[in-house]
Amino acid sequence: MSRLKKGSILAALIVASVGGFEGVSQYAYRDPVGIPTICFGETRGVKMGDYKSLAECKDMLSSRVIEFSVGVEKCLIAPERVPDKMFAAQVSLAYNIGVGAFCGSTLVKKTNAGDLRGACDEFPRWNRAGGVVLPGLTKRRAVERDMCLAGVADRKVTL
After folding, report:
1. Which of 13, 57, 78, 112 has its Cα between 20 and 30 A from that of 86?
2. What domain range is 68 assigned to?
3. Count of domains observed in the chain
């Protein structure tokens, strides 16, 4: 069970964050590395020529954010002790890079070790797609890092 509940303030924060970063396209397009993408950055099962209504895109985003939050929680030793804004930033990152990459990251290792500030400082490292630094990802990671740091003390905590 995810700590996110559909319609909760935390879910709304993550949906707004991801939706704002991803933007919306009702028609399938190729992302910067050539992957067919639709709606708010959705790649699962997308084929060029696909179309979704705005309502379908919003429903898809809400559902997928819940799925990604469950994936993030599985990587963390004590997800319920991670501050909400830090968790929101982590779900946003995982939505963009995938749960597998997120779970294997130094960011997760630092979170699980209680080095929350150190974990937040890992966000800027994830600014590449296909090995190329993308200005949009650099900006996104800076905002996610700031969200992560909001309310996180500069110290280790016991998770």
Report:
1. 57
2. 9-149
3. 1
* Cross-strand bridge partners of residue 133: 128
At position 133, the amino acid (one-letter code) is V
Residue 3 maps to a domain = no
SS3 percent helix, strand, coil of the chain, rounded to 5, is 55, 10, 35
User: CA-based diameter of the chain, in Å?
Assistant: 49
31 belongs to the catalytic site? yes
Write out the two tokens for 129. 């797609």
- List pLDDT tens digits, range 81-125: 999 999 999 999 999 999 999 999 999 999 999 999 999 999 999
Is the C-alpha dihedral spanning 16, 143, 150, 145 positive or negative?
positive
This prediction has a pTM of: 0.92
- From 31, 67, 84, 121, the catalytic residue: 31
Q: Which SS3 state, helix, strand or coil, does residue 51 take?
A: strand
Query: Which letter does DSSP use for residue 155 in this model?
Result: S
Residue 50 domain flag: yes
Active site residue 122: no
* Ramachandran region, residue 87 (left: φ > 0; alpha: ψ -120 to 50; beta: rest): alpha
Q: Please report whether residue 111 resides in a domain.
A: yes
